[in-house]
Specification:
It is a single chain. It contains three helices and eleven strands; from the N terminus they run αββαβββββββαββ. By secondary structure, the chain is of the alpha+beta class. The protein has two domains: about 70 residues, Type Iii Antifreeze Protein Isoform Hplc 12; about 120 residues, no CATH class. About 5% of the residues have low confidence. The longest helix is centred in the first third of the chain and has 37 residues. Strands 6, 7, 8, 9, 10 and 11 form a six-stranded antiparallel beta sheet that branches.
Amino acid sequence: MSAAARRRRGLLLLALALVAGGLAASQVSGRVGEVERQVGRPVPVVVARQDITPDTALDAKQLRTLLVVTEVPQRFAAPDSVAAVEDLAGRRTAVPIAAGSQLTLGQLSGGEERQGAPVAGPRRGERAVEVAVAGGDALGEAGSPGARVDVLVSTEPREGPGRTLLALENVELLGLQAGGPGGAGAGGGSADGAASRASATATLRVTLRQAVYLTAAQNFAREVRLLARPPGDRRRGGRQAFSAAGL
């Protein structure tokens, strides 16, 4: 085979390899896009490098030793997960945390969570969000600043039966004011969504992701309701949802 023929053959093989590589890359990109549509894009979460015992101080010296940031699909990130190690400086663990598990705000204490104690404003990585809630009167004394609550969201039965889900757990209540938006009582407002059925306005300490979720629930869900937790109760109920068809 002549040198010219060898060069032509080499160029042809190179071209075929480039085409094959391009097709493979396109298939991989399409598959990645399909997976991301199903489970969401990767988001950063803080996980434990090792087992952490309750009442462990997360001071600046221990943060990088005990914790690390990794990425998980958005669907598998806990609603109250933490995105940056630095956001946990000065907190303490309230429950045992197993190595490899995500750290959530519900697993932590910051020194001012005792019910009735002075409540500090949001720390780094946190937000204070106002939510119009139904059944606020039922909270009674359990609705004082510093209390811990679970958040239930009931959706509109637009496509299929409506459902009620345990949306957030062990969230800190910063304040509770009787009356819905604009001081209206239950059902007194003309607004659409959860605000139209609200009897109180709650201010909650949440992560940014939770704040966006609650704002969406406020606008598009039928009702948002709080359940007070007994002091010291940090047990997690997990994902729970019930629809009208299941009653």
